[in-house]
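Re: Re: token formats

Sure, here are both.
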Amino acid sequence: MSKTMQNLLSKDDSALVIFKAGQTVKGSIVDVTPSRTLLELPGGATGIITKREGAVYGDEAATDVGAEIEATVIDPENEQGLTMLSLRRASQDTAWAELSTIQDDERIIKVKIEEANKGGLMAKYKGLKAFLPVSQLMPMNYPRVEGADSAEILRKLQGHIGKEFAVRALNVDREQGKIIISEKLAHQTQMKETLKNIQIGDVVEGVVSGVVKFGLFVTFGGVEGLVHVSEMEWGHVSDPSKNHGIGDKVEVMIIGKEGDKLSFSIKQLSEDPWLKTAEAYSEGQEVTGKVTRWNDNGVFIEIASDVQGLFSIDQFDAERGSELTGNVKEGQEMTGKIAMINTDAHRLELTRV
């Protein structure tokens, strides 16, 4: 037994204060060894902090003799007459209290991502584990995967390990030991401001946040919208990933806005090349082309490269495309008169002659 320990135990205990478990006390460090720390407490009591209970936020407490620290009582008096204390629990008590205030005040904090699972990300706030669900991630960080491939979702989420996220506390429940955080909430003000200030027709620069078979997801100002595959180029796009990847900067036009759902277009930022092609035609003009297909809308013919004509189905005394089979053949030449130049559908509406 050290001399310091002997001196502390030999004190007259008639004036000692007996503390209660869970109580927070302050004391001055009087002795430190690798395995424990001794404190002088109010009323002459002696407190002891073991190595395990001296860990704060996952690290061993670094304190010097004479320093005043705050700890939580876990045993008012052990077999040696010492008050068992915990810095670890004191730090957790402080962290829980802080998080509760942070939630009430709607403050933004930063956390570092340490783990990932299929449901979301795990972070720590001053030693306390916090869960960031997938649904509370910002669009740029959302693991967008086609076909709900759980392995791919997990792989993408694991890519966030080590990153620092700005979040808000969504739910702090000490009784259940649960802390739910949200990245979306932290950017809510920015998102609302962006949505308030944009209008249909505006042109903005964003970043590709997702590439799927039906188009591109693009984010800017904390919000996200979709460039449908039909709005990527004036021609047919078979593979959206061919010319675009996640992280690419792209300029888009806002063409739809419904609440926080946005629709974008890339192709409308350039002139429709079909309009130039259509200048060679006029209403009333006769044209000839070869049949390419037919359906319930009618018979389609190819007049020239990128120029298509349509005879409506009612011109064939039919109601369904199946009734046209036998009356028309693929490759058959047909002549018609231009009734209308349909710039929206990129085709010539024809009447039979």
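Second one below.
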Amino acid sequence: MIRPFNREWLRRRRFVVLLAVLGPGVIAANAGNDAGGIATYASAGSQFVYRTLFLMVLVTVALVVVQEMAARLGAYSGEGLISLVREQFSLRVATVPVVLMVIANLGLVVSEFAGIGAGFEIFGVSRYIAIPIAAIAIWAVVVFGTYRYAERVFLLLTLVFLAYPVAVFLGKPNWGAVATNTLLPHFVASHAFVLLAVALVGTTITPYMQLYQAAAVSDRGIGPEDYPRERVDAIGGVIFANLISMFIIIATAAAIGGTGALSSADQAARALAPVAGSSATTLFAVGLLGASALAAAIVPLSTAYGLAEAVGAERSVSRRFSEARLFLGLFTGQIVLGAAVALIPGNLIHLLINTQILNGVITPVILAFILILANRRSVLGDAVNSPRFRVVATVSVVAVSALALLVVLQTVAGWLHLG
């Protein structure tokens, strides 16, 4: 007997297939839209209105290339990036980027918990209550759950990013200007624009995203036969995450465009209230909370994966503490230290966020390793980069690496009062 066509059944089936596809790619890409990222995107909108949208299109292309290679390496090798570096090169070669990554990521963890505190304070909840509760919840999800359970929680957190498209419509942007600035370059010949452009690249493409992508693909048990779906996850995750980044730029541009730079994501949320209303502020704050919570889990996980891979220790969210002491111990230590430092009053957090300069050093190294590994037939076999993809990947890696190093030079010049 032939079953009659059932639209509801078809919708449910599509939803189940979508859930099966979503995973490490969506999580890794959206973790990049953390508190620091939101502040940078909001500042782009408040300073230069819609003019950085075309740049974000170019950044999206580069990030798609990088994240796809990281996911392919994890799927076809069954290992994370640092583990592959240790095998293909040496432990000594892998040590330097890992050490720098630990220091840089610790500063990021502090900033993520600071973002959680700032988000709750917008709703009138003290950071001294919010941060400890958030830290315990994030720690429990990873330590007491399986990878599949933690992944579902992380995917739920990505839903909060849908608040930003809603905030855009509340701001009533000029859609004609949005379209032309997205499709055509409208760059500004100024030092401030160049600085912001470099900051946008630096906050969108960060090493912990690639490290988590490859390690999580391996941890989830995704193999070569599953890679077509994972490729959709990796590419789709980047496109979704960068669309959200663009929505943040558009929302702030529509409401407070041309008013100058912003120093934090919570400042952007509060600035929207007089123009776009309290609803826009609430949506921005909800997005900040979810983004900070997601990154507060993913950043320390990427560090734990990297260190455990470097020494060949057991590494899986699905393992019990007794089975993966180093991996889960490193994750725990970062959560405790990050939350504790975020509770310290004063400007210590701003000093720690300067450790992001190390990301400018690490990024070229990690991207170079990804490109070399993805070009090696001994690692990927027939899944190695094709000649055309190799050209695109090389251009993307060189361009992003050059901008990342420019971040380092700009930061050092600022410290020395040369800029």
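The CA atoms of residues 150 and 226 lie 20 Å apart. The chain has one domain: 24-253+260-415.
- S.
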